[in-house]
Design goal:
Chain A is α+β, with helices and mostly antiparallel strands. Chain A has one domain. Chain A has 3 helices and 5 strands, in the order ααβαββββ. Classes of the chains: A alpha+beta (about 130), B alpha/beta (about 350).
């Protein structure tokens, strides 16, 4: 049985992503605010997100996109790693997301499940393309 | 309003459900099929027959909220919603001024003989003078028999064995009655094989749609209707139209009962967002390719389950009588109990307007 799945309009998705976005740096930094326990928050200026440190499959996907769009400059601006849906590492600053025509997101999810254990690790990368 | 006319058969107290009508119109005696009850003719939506609304537009996509894991693939399988309301034969005839009578046949899954004996009792009861029945306005006038499925063979059997029983009979109309038999009775496992043809994960749903049919064809009532059975041969032997009686037969050629539908995640559900949990699950309803609709997709082993030839239980070519006018409709077997197009055709016969046959 070959199943067909409904497609998602890319622009609609980018707009949803942007409307659901919350700047975690602003949410957790500043007077009287604190980073939730178990979460590491870093500033990309102090801890730049290197492309070479991204998961291999993500790097391959990015390389494929670059090949299809030669001359494009891609700068990674935000990174989040969640475990079972909860943030573990966040690299974010006070800047908003890139505008929708410069927006690019990448992700990878890996899972492990047994009869008594489930672990879902997701890495989300936001980049600016010019 | 329905009136109850009591009668006794085989020492059991039973009743005919009678509805009044216009004085000049014939009484329509409604006979249900094998495995049925009087509800077939009065409230078919209460009988559990498949009555899915397979023309209903799909609902909008559904927001299932945020999740920690990506939503990928099939969320669930489902069938079409029930079609409602269903207008029964009793209701449509009553709305058009026809008095009706119906009852639940004895042992409706058994051989036809006891049902024949009971129908003789019922017809005799309906021909009693109104005063004896202690009922007002019971029309001792023209009678029409409108029969579904095996009910049509029951009518033929009674009329053949008791030709003088109903002198006021004017019309016999049979709806998808397998006058020449049903090959499903010859191959009793066919409908079960059809269920097993579907992927195992879907079989419970398919059983919900076809299970009752599969059970029915294994019953003695249906086995008696095997093509070439002694019962059918005996019934046809020497049978002819009763003088002055018009015969109409209908056959169905649609095996479509329901679409097989699937809620599936859209692509958005698999892409994480800057949110926790990161996956926004949205599901959309689609028709499952290849195996939907049910039962159009199954291998047409016999004409009864071949779209364009049968109606799930009977084949159009085997629902004909040599002395009847025949009409073929693209509806399935249970739809005969509520299809508005068929009801309009029958009403035109009862109103002597048979223009639709041409």
């Amino acid at each position: 049985m070959v199943q067909q799945f409904p497609s998602t309009n890319p622009l609609d998705f980018v707009r949803k992503f942007r409307s659901n976005y919350v700047n975690l740096h602003d949410l957790w930094s500043g007077d009287g605010k604190q980073v939730p326990e178990g979460v590491t928050l870093r500033d990309p200026k102090r801890s730049p997100i290197k492309e070479s440190s991204l998961p291999e499959a993500t790097q391959a996907l990015l390389a494929e996109y670059r090949k299809a769009n030669p001359g494009l400059k891609i700068v990674i601006v935000k990174y989040m790693r969640t475990v079972n849906g909860v943030p573990e590492t966040v690299v974010d600053d006070g800047l908003e997301l890139p505008p929708e025509d410069e927006f690019l997101s990448l992700s990878q999810t890996v899972t492990l499940s047994t009869r008594d254990h489930i672990r879902v690790v997701t890495e989300i990368i936001v980049a600016r393309k010019k | 309003m329905a009136i109850t006319i009591p009668y006794t058969f085989n020492d059991r107290d039973k009743s005919i459900e009678y509805t009044d009508g216009d004085a000049g119109k014939p009484l329509v005696l409604l006979l249900h099929g094998a495995g049925g009850t009087s509800l077939d003719m009065t409230a078919p939506d209460q009988r559990g027959y498949p009555h899915y609304d397979y023309t209903e537009p799909f609902p909008p996509d559904r927001d299932e909220g945020w999740s920690a894991y990506p939503g990928v693939g099939v969320w669930s399988f489902t069938l079409d919603n029930p079609k409602e309301p269903l207008i029964s034969w009793q209701q449509i005839l009553q709305d058009n001024g026809f008095p009706t009578a119906t009852y639940s046949q004895v042992d409706s899954t058994g051989p036809i003989q006891s049902a024949e004996d009971e129908l003789v009792v019922v017809i005799n009861k309906l021909q009693m003078p109104p005063a004896k029945l202690e009922l007002p306005n019971l029309p001792a006038k023209e009678l029409v028999i409108l029969a579904h499925s095996r009910g049509g063979l029951l009518a033929r059997k009674v009329l053949k064995d008791h030709a003088d029983l109903v002198p006021n009979l004017t019309t016999v109309i049979t709806l998808d009655s397998p006058h020449l038999g049903s090959e499903l009775a010859n191959l009793a496992t066919t409908l079960n094989d059809v269920i097993l043809w579907f992927p195992s994960s879907i079989q419970p749903l398919i059983t919900q749609v076809l299970g009752d049919f599969a059970n029915l064809v294994a019953q003695p009532a249906w086995q008696e209707l095997a093509v070439g059975s002694p019962f059918l041969m005996d019934l046809a032997n020497g049978e002819g139209a009763l003088p002055g009686v018009r015969y109409f037969t209908f056959g169905g050629i649609s095996v479509k009962l329901t679409r097989l539908l699937s809620w599936v995640y859209n692509l958005e559900s698999a892409i994480p967002q800057w949110h926790w949990p990161p996956f926004h699950h949205v599901i959309a309803l689609i028709e499952v390719p290849v195996i939907s609709p049910v039962a159009n997709s199954v291998p047409p082993v016999v004409d009864e389950i071949a779209n364009g030839k049968g109606d799930i239980l009977t084949a159009d070519k085997r629902c004909r009588l040599p002395f009847a006018v025949h009409q073929t409709n693209a509806i399935n077997h249970p739809e005969c109990l509520w299809d508005p197009g068929l009801q309009a055709q029958v009403l035109s016969i009862l109103g002597d307007d048979t223009g639709f046959w041409e």
